[in-house]
Amino acid sequence: xxxxxxxxxxxxxxxxxxxxxxxxxxxxxxxxxxxxxxxxxxxxxxxxxxxxxxxxxxxxxxxxxxxxxxxxxxxxxxxxxxxxxxxxxxxxxxxxxxxxxxxxxxxxxxxxxxxxxxxxxxxxxxxxxxxxxxxxxxxxxxxxxxxxxxxxxxxxxxxxxxxxxxxxxxxxxxxxxxxxxxxxxxxxxxxxxxxxxxxxxxxxxxxxxxxxxxxxxxxxxxxxxxxxxxxxxxxxxxxxxxxxxxxxxxxxxxxxxxxxxxxxxxxxxxxxxxxxxxxxxxxxxxxxxxxxxxxxxxxxxxxxxxxxxxxxxxxxxxxxxxxxxxxxxxxxxxxxxxxxxxxxxxxxxxxxxxxxxxxxxxxxxxxxxxxxxxxxxxxxxxxxxxxxxxxxxxxxxxxxxxxxxxxxxxxxxxxxxxxxxxxxxxxxxxxxxxxxxxxxxxxxxxxxxxxxxxxxxxxxxxxxxxxxxxxxxxxxxxxxxxxxxxxxxxxxxxxxxxxxxxxxxxxxxxxxxxxxxxxxxxxxxxxxxxxxxxx
Length: 535
Known about the structure:
single chain, mainly alpha, globular, disordered N terminus, Hybrid_Histidine_Kinase, TPR-like_helical_dom_sf
């Protein structure tokens, strides 16, 4: 027995070492091995502290955007814990594994899961690094399924709620919003029941991401303030930063004006800078620049586009790069800069990864990505863009039918209208544009109401219905002005004048009336802008 223990110690065989020691104790050999047992205990303690230190280093790499270092360290940690993960696996296999795990969990009631036995065997305690989950999209399913598997086999551990939270996100990604929400809600309940302050911030953050598919965005977004406070109370600065970043991003898309968004972004960046979280700082900087450009190009003093681009490339974070291209595409789409929009969209679709977790940002990526794709298809007649638009429309349709009608109805209708327009289904497009506008108005998404009016105006102009087109363009100007997009209003007014005053089919009376309306709106816009400057 003594020889077995020594061999296990020398080989550092993990579970075999512990098994051997337990057997030695059971058979009465422990008195002979007291010195070696103490040595073993010290080795285990050193390994544990070393692993914790490695996880902390890995988290630091993740927050400072040293992605490859963080991923490799995460894989090493899991290997040391005795849990080797495959370096590659097919989507089909992953889908089957997720469905199989969901079917297994559905046989256990939520009440039984809340009262599930606790893990007692220390050999099976896994401290998965949350940073790995965040930065390595291709690893998310394998790590998540392993966490759930170990929980069901050996009992609840402090990391089990994180496993259920990420598993819920996987289920939602596979088009089961209610099923996924059940598991993220379970994760929150487990955190409360087990009083797990250390992981509460991450669980609250991810469960709120899924809540955005169930509750109105404005309501779900307010939850992130609680998430930030909970994370800070548990000493988890990283997830406090993610909660603040997602709250800040959410303000732009939940119906707020651009001036409100700009103030929230300024506060958010200050918070993140004070805590040294580079990745989330870069996220906000990218979006903040777009907000300031839309308010007024002259007010965009934070950073030039060339400086921002260089900062993003130097950062070497693929997620930040994808956000940069998406935001550039969005900005160009709003300002009707077709060439820039097309170039940025092409880069975005090349750089974006297929994340297995569903985030609230996918809502806006799906909307804008779909609208941009339909526009590029109509300009180029390249089938790939139509396929992209239709795929993103189908995704939005699923969320509208099984998630929050408040959040998704108007977005789906607008994508549907653009799809009809792209297929030259004129009567269907007319009806759906009207519904999209009405839905955006009812659900208080002023930005999306403005976009819907402008796209409808473009549609009517292209089919030769200039009077209705002019009405929609005028309404779009009003809504963009209400949103606070001064730069956009000025560009759109100039575009309207060019389109209609050079159109031979537009009667002279319409041209005169148009000029008066545009000049009146420009005066109102300038006056509002001056008031904001004075305040």
